[in-house]
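TOPIC: backbone geometry
CONTENTS: sequence, structure tokens:
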Amino acid sequence: MGKALPACRSDIYRCNSAVGLVYKTAGGSALTIALVGTWTGNITYFGYIIAADIRRSIAVQKQQHLPYTKRNLATDLRGVFVEFGLAEILDSLLIRPAMMYFVPRIVPGFTAGIIAAKLAADLLFYVPAIIGYEVNKKYLKEKSATTPN
């Protein structure tokens, strides 16, 4: 699931930090900026991960001369949810919006505050995400490898 994507997440959030900065100059509130930056990052990041997982699964199914089914899709989505679900819920609803709202008020310079908030939120995101990845790898990948589609 998303193994080689941390750099991608960083690039996406740099882009979304820029979105937040543009919105700030247009007169948006700090809370709106925090939420827009968080949720646009989530949509782009997880859209990319889900699409990449589906592409990989389709390729595996094609190699085995099998169709990609709804069950394959459910397996791919379950894997993303187990790997990132808890981390993303905490990140989207609490950690990242709070960081994006409060840190720019503490750190001198709005841009520096947004960057510091993004880095702190990323660190807090990856602790439960790594645990989810290990659970997914150990329990769900082994099970799905032994279960016929």
In short: Helices lie at 6-25, 30-63, 70-106, 110-146.
